[in-house]
Amino acid sequence: MAHLGVPGAGPPTSSGGPSSATGGAPEPSSYLSVQEREGYWVVSMHKEPVNSLNLLMWQQLEAVLDRAEAAFPRVRGLIFTTGLKRDVFTAGNDLLELYAPRTSAKRYAEFWCTSNRVLCKLHRGPLSTIAAVRGACPAGGCMMALCCDHRVMSSQGAIGLNEVQLGILVPKFWALLMSQLVGRKAADKLLTTGKMVNPAEVRPPLHVSVCWICVCLGASAELEPSCRPVHQMPHGAFFV
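The chain above was modelled as a monomer; its predicted structure follows.
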Protein backbone atom coordinates (compact mmCIF):
# COMPACT_ATOMS: atom_id res chain seq x y z
CA MET A 1 0.00 0.00 0.00
CA ALA A 2 1.25 3.47 -0.85
CA HIS A 3 0.32 6.72 0.79
CA LEU A 4 1.38 10.30 0.15
CA GLY A 5 -0.02 13.67 -0.72
CA VAL A 6 -0.66 14.52 -4.35
CA PRO A 7 -0.86 18.13 -5.54
CA GLY A 8 -1.04 17.28 -9.20
CA ALA A 9 2.64 16.72 -9.78
CA GLY A 10 2.31 12.95 -9.93
CA PRO A 11 0.55 9.76 -8.83
CA PRO A 12 1.03 7.94 -5.55
CA THR A 13 4.26 6.04 -5.11
CA SER A 14 5.21 2.90 -3.28
CA SER A 15 7.20 3.01 -0.07
CA GLY A 16 10.21 1.82 -2.04
CA GLY A 17 10.61 5.00 -4.07
CA PRO A 18 9.11 7.26 -6.71
CA SER A 19 6.72 5.99 -9.33
CA SER A 20 8.23 4.95 -12.63
CA ALA A 21 5.38 6.78 -14.38
CA THR A 22 6.87 10.16 -13.46
CA GLY A 23 10.44 9.43 -12.46
CA GLY A 24 10.14 11.50 -9.29
CA ALA A 25 8.03 12.02 -6.20
CA PRO A 26 5.34 14.68 -6.31
CA GLU A 27 5.28 17.71 -4.06
CA PRO A 28 3.05 17.50 -0.98
CA SER A 29 -0.57 18.59 -1.29
CA SER A 30 -2.40 20.71 1.24
CA TYR A 31 -5.82 19.33 0.36
CA LEU A 32 -5.55 15.78 -1.00
CA SER A 33 -3.81 12.55 -0.13
CA VAL A 34 -3.81 9.37 -2.18
CA GLN A 35 -3.47 5.76 -1.10
CA GLU A 36 -2.64 3.23 -3.77
CA ARG A 37 -4.43 -0.10 -3.68
CA GLU A 38 -4.25 -2.97 -6.15
CA GLY A 39 -5.88 -1.55 -9.24
CA TYR A 40 -7.32 1.64 -7.75
CA TRP A 41 -6.56 4.72 -5.66
CA VAL A 42 -8.31 6.08 -2.57
CA VAL A 43 -8.36 9.89 -2.71
CA SER A 44 -8.95 11.61 0.64
CA MET A 45 -9.94 15.27 0.89
CA HIS A 46 -8.76 17.07 4.01
CA LYS A 47 -9.34 20.80 3.59
CA GLU A 48 -10.41 22.11 6.97
CA PRO A 49 -12.94 22.82 8.18
CA VAL A 50 -15.48 21.31 5.74
CA ASN A 51 -13.66 20.42 2.48
CA SER A 52 -15.07 23.47 0.69
CA LEU A 53 -14.23 23.28 -3.01
CA ASN A 54 -12.23 26.34 -3.98
CA LEU A 55 -10.25 26.79 -7.20
CA LEU A 56 -7.11 25.12 -5.86
CA MET A 57 -9.10 22.13 -4.59
CA TRP A 58 -10.70 21.62 -8.03
CA GLN A 59 -7.28 21.99 -9.69
CA GLN A 60 -5.81 19.33 -7.44
CA LEU A 61 -8.74 17.00 -8.07
CA GLU A 62 -8.27 17.46 -11.81
CA ALA A 63 -4.56 16.70 -11.50
CA VAL A 64 -5.25 13.45 -9.65
CA LEU A 65 -7.82 12.45 -12.28
CA ASP A 66 -5.38 13.17 -15.09
CA ARG A 67 -2.64 11.13 -13.44
CA ALA A 68 -4.96 8.22 -12.76
CA GLU A 69 -6.25 8.22 -16.34
CA ALA A 70 -2.67 8.27 -17.61
CA ALA A 71 -2.02 5.14 -15.51
CA PHE A 72 -5.09 3.31 -16.91
CA PRO A 73 -5.54 0.32 -17.06
CA ARG A 74 -3.04 -0.27 -14.25
CA VAL A 75 -5.24 2.08 -12.24
CA ARG A 76 -8.87 1.31 -13.07
CA GLY A 77 -10.72 3.33 -10.47
CA LEU A 78 -10.82 5.98 -7.78
CA ILE A 79 -12.60 6.13 -4.45
CA PHE A 80 -13.19 9.67 -3.16
CA THR A 81 -13.59 10.08 0.57
CA THR A 82 -13.22 12.62 3.35
CA GLY A 83 -10.13 12.80 5.50
CA LEU A 84 -11.79 15.07 8.06
CA LYS A 85 -12.60 13.92 11.57
CA ARG A 86 -16.04 15.53 11.40
CA ASP A 87 -18.82 13.95 9.36
CA VAL A 88 -18.50 16.03 6.20
CA PHE A 89 -17.72 14.63 2.76
CA THR A 90 -17.53 18.11 1.25
CA ALA A 91 -19.64 21.20 1.88
CA GLY A 92 -19.62 21.99 -1.84
CA ASN A 93 -18.22 25.00 -3.66
CA ASP A 94 -16.46 27.61 -1.57
CA LEU A 95 -18.91 30.53 -1.43
CA LEU A 96 -16.02 32.99 -1.44
CA GLU A 97 -15.34 31.90 -5.03
CA LEU A 98 -18.88 33.05 -5.90
CA TYR A 99 -18.88 36.29 -3.89
CA ALA A 100 -18.10 39.19 -6.23
CA PRO A 101 -16.22 41.42 -3.73
CA ARG A 102 -13.82 38.55 -2.97
CA THR A 103 -13.05 37.41 -6.51
CA SER A 104 -12.52 38.74 -10.05
CA ALA A 105 -14.13 38.04 -13.41
CA LYS A 106 -11.02 36.14 -14.51
CA ARG A 107 -10.86 33.95 -11.41
CA TYR A 108 -14.64 33.39 -11.46
CA ALA A 109 -14.45 32.10 -15.04
CA GLU A 110 -11.43 29.94 -14.23
CA PHE A 111 -13.20 28.50 -11.20
CA TRP A 112 -16.26 27.38 -13.18
CA CYS A 113 -14.25 26.13 -16.16
CA THR A 114 -12.03 24.05 -13.87
CA SER A 115 -14.86 22.61 -11.80
CA ASN A 116 -16.85 21.78 -14.94
CA ARG A 117 -13.85 19.98 -16.47
CA VAL A 118 -13.45 17.87 -13.33
CA LEU A 119 -17.13 16.96 -13.28
CA CYS A 120 -17.06 16.04 -16.98
CA LYS A 121 -13.98 13.87 -16.47
CA LEU A 122 -15.66 12.10 -13.56
CA HIS A 123 -18.82 11.55 -15.56
CA ARG A 124 -17.32 10.53 -18.89
CA GLY A 125 -13.82 9.22 -18.11
CA PRO A 126 -12.60 5.61 -18.42
CA LEU A 127 -12.10 5.16 -14.68
CA SER A 128 -14.62 3.53 -12.36
CA THR A 129 -15.31 6.15 -9.69
CA ILE A 130 -16.98 5.87 -6.30
CA ALA A 131 -17.95 8.63 -3.86
CA ALA A 132 -17.71 7.37 -0.30
CA VAL A 133 -20.02 9.87 1.37
CA ARG A 134 -19.51 10.12 5.12
CA GLY A 135 -21.57 12.96 6.52
CA ALA A 136 -22.88 16.05 4.76
CA CYS A 137 -22.65 16.26 0.97
CA PRO A 138 -24.55 19.32 -0.31
CA ALA A 139 -24.45 21.35 -3.54
CA GLY A 140 -21.15 21.00 -5.43
CA GLY A 141 -20.24 18.01 -3.27
CA CYS A 142 -23.49 16.34 -4.26
CA MET A 143 -22.73 17.04 -7.92
CA MET A 144 -19.27 15.52 -7.54
CA ALA A 145 -20.90 12.40 -6.10
CA LEU A 146 -23.57 12.31 -8.83
CA CYS A 147 -20.86 12.41 -11.50
CA CYS A 148 -19.17 9.36 -9.99
CA ASP A 149 -20.30 5.93 -11.17
CA HIS A 150 -21.38 4.84 -7.70
CA ARG A 151 -22.19 6.45 -4.37
CA VAL A 152 -21.89 4.79 -0.96
CA MET A 153 -23.31 6.64 2.05
CA SER A 154 -22.67 6.29 5.75
CA SER A 155 -25.51 6.25 8.27
CA GLN A 156 -24.67 9.90 9.04
CA GLY A 157 -24.81 10.86 5.37
CA ALA A 158 -27.02 13.56 3.85
CA ILE A 159 -26.89 14.48 0.18
CA GLY A 160 -28.66 16.93 -2.10
CA LEU A 161 -28.53 20.03 -4.28
CA ASN A 162 -29.63 22.54 -1.65
CA GLU A 163 -28.72 25.77 -3.47
CA VAL A 164 -32.25 27.22 -3.34
CA GLN A 165 -32.06 27.30 0.45
CA LEU A 166 -29.20 29.78 0.05
CA GLY A 167 -30.91 31.78 -2.68
CA ILE A 168 -28.61 30.37 -5.39
CA LEU A 169 -29.76 28.91 -8.68
CA VAL A 170 -28.93 25.27 -9.37
CA PRO A 171 -26.82 25.10 -12.56
CA LYS A 172 -28.87 23.75 -15.46
CA PHE A 173 -26.78 20.67 -16.18
CA TRP A 174 -26.58 19.78 -12.50
CA ALA A 175 -30.38 19.68 -12.41
CA LEU A 176 -30.50 17.61 -15.60
CA LEU A 177 -28.09 15.01 -14.24
CA MET A 178 -30.05 14.66 -11.01
CA SER A 179 -33.22 14.24 -13.05
CA GLN A 180 -31.60 11.48 -15.10
CA LEU A 181 -30.46 9.63 -11.98
CA VAL A 182 -33.47 9.93 -9.69
CA GLY A 183 -36.33 10.62 -12.12
CA ARG A 184 -38.08 13.85 -13.11
CA LYS A 185 -40.69 13.88 -10.36
CA ALA A 186 -38.27 13.19 -7.51
CA ALA A 187 -35.74 15.66 -8.93
CA ASP A 188 -38.34 18.45 -9.19
CA LYS A 189 -39.21 18.01 -5.53
CA LEU A 190 -35.61 17.83 -4.36
CA LEU A 191 -34.44 20.78 -6.46
CA THR A 192 -37.29 23.15 -5.62
CA THR A 193 -37.07 22.48 -1.87
CA GLY A 194 -33.31 22.03 -1.56
CA LYS A 195 -33.97 18.94 0.53
CA MET A 196 -31.02 16.93 1.77
CA VAL A 197 -31.84 13.21 1.86
CA ASN A 198 -30.42 10.64 4.25
CA PRO A 199 -29.71 6.95 3.54
CA ALA A 200 -33.15 5.86 4.73
CA GLU A 201 -34.75 8.09 2.07
CA VAL A 202 -32.44 7.13 -0.78
CA ARG A 203 -34.18 3.99 -1.97
CA PRO A 204 -36.59 2.77 -4.68
CA PRO A 205 -39.74 4.46 -3.31
CA LEU A 206 -38.01 7.75 -4.12
CA HIS A 207 -37.25 6.46 -7.64
CA VAL A 208 -33.53 6.66 -6.97
CA SER A 209 -31.16 5.05 -9.44
CA VAL A 210 -29.79 1.63 -8.59
CA CYS A 211 -26.35 3.24 -8.69
CA TRP A 212 -27.09 4.69 -5.25
CA ILE A 213 -25.70 2.14 -2.80
CA CYS A 214 -26.57 3.05 0.79
CA VAL A 215 -25.01 1.17 3.68
CA CYS A 216 -24.24 2.02 7.26
CA LEU A 217 -20.55 2.73 7.65
CA GLY A 218 -18.68 3.65 10.77
CA ALA A 219 -15.78 4.99 8.71
CA SER A 220 -15.04 5.45 5.05
CA ALA A 221 -12.39 2.72 5.08
CA GLU A 222 -15.06 0.11 5.80
CA LEU A 223 -16.60 0.57 2.37
CA GLU A 224 -13.56 -0.70 0.48
CA PRO A 225 -14.57 -4.39 0.47
CA SER A 226 -17.85 -3.45 -1.24
CA CYS A 227 -16.09 -1.15 -3.72
CA ARG A 228 -13.22 -3.45 -4.66
CA PRO A 229 -15.19 -5.69 -7.08
CA VAL A 230 -16.06 -2.64 -9.19
CA HIS A 231 -12.38 -1.84 -9.70
CA GLN A 232 -11.54 -5.45 -10.54
CA MET A 233 -13.82 -5.60 -13.56
CA PRO A 234 -12.20 -6.72 -16.84
CA HIS A 235 -10.52 -3.99 -18.87
CA GLY A 236 -13.08 -4.14 -21.69
CA ALA A 237 -16.01 -3.75 -19.30
CA PHE A 238 -15.31 -0.05 -19.02
CA PHE A 239 -16.06 0.45 -22.71
CA VAL A 240 -19.28 -1.57 -23.04
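The beta strands are 2-5, 32-36, 40-45, 77-82, 128-133, 136-138, 150-153, 158-160, 212-214.
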